[in-house]
Design brief:
By secondary structure, the protein is an alpha/beta fold. About 20% of the residues lie in helices and about 30% in strands. A nine-stranded mixed sheet has the order 2-1-3-4-13-12-11-8-9. The model has no long low-confidence stretch (mean pLDDT about 95).
Length: about 200
């Protein structure tokens, strides 16, 4: 198994994720090559952008069928996590079907959308949150959210609870941006890279 590979599908936060890995002493490769991704020790799917164009980019690179079959640890960040769900309302599209559920726009409320800024997460489960306290603050920027369901390993509350992180088998997802979340975010990335 080789390096940490950050999947290149024109997402906006690729280089900040790469910098966060480097700060922890891990070199990473940015690639959309199925061979490089298959041979990686760890795979990170970053995410800033729209689900429709993201799925088109993954499809054109031959990754929509490949990613769900990966056996090594895979981390989706923000849009990268949303793409792991079965249904994507933003683009009326099918996702990668790793996690069950539908990613939909925040329901109407008095709170502004996108949900942008620091918020606490709770009900933390699993190795991704080793050494992280309940109620820790993380940085979010998103208009679409996944409901709490069986794969949820952390919740956030913004007009109601939603999935802040999810996991199934070797797949993990964070709706927040760990690469922008200070020491706690660095710990999440470190935990993932040490799985």
């Amino acid at each position: 198994m080789g390096d940490v590979v950050i999947v290149n599908y024109s997402a906006g936060n690729i280089f900040s994720v790469q910098t966060a890995c480097r700060r922890l002493g891990y070199e990473s490769v940015i690639s959309d090559s199925p061979g490089v991704i298959t041979g990686a020790a760890k795979v990170i799917i970053p995410g800033v952008g729209s689900s429709g164009s993201a799925m088109e980019s993954l499809e054109s690179a031959g990754l929509t069928c490949l990613i769900p079959r990966l056996n090594q640890p895979v981390l989706g960040i923000c849009l990268g996590m949303q793409l792991m769900y079965s249904r994507l309302d933003e683009s009326d599209d099918t996702g990668l079907k790793i996690f069950d559920g539908r990613v939909s726009l925040f329901p109407p409320s008095e709170l502004p959308v996108p949900h942008m800024g620091w918020n606490r997460i709770f009900n933390l489960k699993g190795p991704l949150f080793s050494g992280i306290d309940e109620g820790e603050w993380f940085y979010f920027v998103h208009s679409y959210m996944a409901p709490a369901e069986e794969d949820t390993i952390a919740l956030c509350n913004y007009g109601g609870p939603f999935t802040a992180a999810a996991a199934r088998d070797n797949f993990f997802g964070c709706q927040f941006h760990p690469e922008k979340s200070g020491e706690a975010g660095q710990r999440v990335i470190k935990n993932f890279l040490e799985i």
